[in-house]
Amino acid sequence: MVARLDGGGRAADFDLLAAGSGRRVRMRDQIGRKVVLVFHLQGTAPTAREINRAVRERFPDPEEVLVASVIDLSIVPPVYWLTVGLVLGSAYEQATRELPPDVDAADYLVILPDWGGRVSRDYGVRNTGRAAAIVIVDEVSNVILSYQGERPVEAVLEVLEDG
User: Model's pTM, two decimal places?
Assistant: First the structure.
């Protein structure tokens, strides 16, 4: 399964609260830096970690490139939202232990629960349980890559390094 669309118009705006850090993330506030959105579910979370690690090695400054995981939780009934929120917060805390002590975890680990699935729908993302989907947005909010398929780390780095 490979889907790739280079260039894609304006990025859809969103306003989500990051799990763990409580940081509010709005697409409209990201002007001036590239944004890598990694849409995934639990089974494809390792792809998100690989992408984050690879991007941070080449682009260590989160002010240059923001990497954010977006998790479509539309299938989760509202009665379980608190429990899922606690699980995501725990995953955030565990992941922060792997970071160097001199980095601000809120800048390096951005986990965005998409409770209603609106963001995933707005970006045309599907089947993230099979393969993570990646959307890269440039400094002026244009989608420069939509990708789902083989070798996602390489696809992300290629676009970031070319731009």
Answer: 0.91
